[in-house]
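protein under study:
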Amino acid sequence: MHSESPIKRRPTRKIWVGNVPVGGDAPIAVQSMTNTETCDVDATVAQIERLKNAGADIVRVSVPSMEAAEAFGKIKQRVSLPLVADIHFDYQIALRVAELGVDCLRINPGNIGREDRVRAVVEAARDRGIPIRIGVNAGSLEKDLQKKYGEPTPEALVESALRHVEHLDRLNFPDFKVSVKASDVFMAVAAYRLLADKIEQPLHLGITEAGGLRSGTVKSSVGLGMLLAEGIGDTIRISLAADPVEEIKVGFDILKSLRLRSRGINFIACPSCSRQNFDVVKTMNELEGRLDDLLVPMDVAVIGCVVNGPGEAKEAHIGLTGGSPNNLIYIDGKPAQKLSNDNLVDELEQLIRRKAAEKVETDAALILRS
């Protein structure tokens, strides 16, 4: 039940990736990338469906060959989420997926080849209303920039990005977004800050090759949190060496923590100590697993004792405060009932689900009245 985010977002041009707006006043989109073999259509479709169920707004699919392009077309027919095709070097692949209904092309105009090839891709995108994503990475900078700067730097990343932007500007194509990713947090943050002052287009945020689930989550949260708090960023991808579904979960957790998007339960839980009157860690682990399917935005406080419990519970939709001999449940900030430790998780889950259903009905009624 917190107030709106105090963050003032950077004004940007709005583009559309399928039916998902990116930039302008649109919510910050959360996306991931498949790690299945693209030519394995069934496996790729299954993973995209899992990403959709986790809340993904957009999914990127690597298309390294013409065979993969044909598979992409079959995948596109079977899913509802907007798909971005990740393409390098071969402009004919870009032309083919454009014909097959791609929602966004991830290319770098500079590595597509001659000017006529870039023009062909841009015209195909223009004719079909397809936006382009320019993606610059510290690990694949142009050789002359590596020589000029000696090593990847924020300035090198931005210079590379602006080269690609210039290609699109010459062709009068403004519907694109840009990323300047690095695995080093400070480099990525500095590059995005520099680029944000130079173009009006939306920025796709990410810390590339961030690491495994734990280390990558921390690194991404620090880097993206710094930028998002400054109002920079219109769509995000958390790059983890883990199940892509985890990328979506972490992305939404970052946005929820900054009050930039609400999806699912926002848990407030104490780290637990000897004052706790129930097993907070066990309770939280069970609740998170059981309630993963709830999409309605809700604050749920799970606090083990009466030191901070009542204060946190009063600010949540549902609050549990540890007490002896019984724990106290708050609903919408008011004491409602007591629960013993017997079947605590089962009863708390039922209360949360009941409150979530009520909230859905209330929100729907408010929308109808407005």
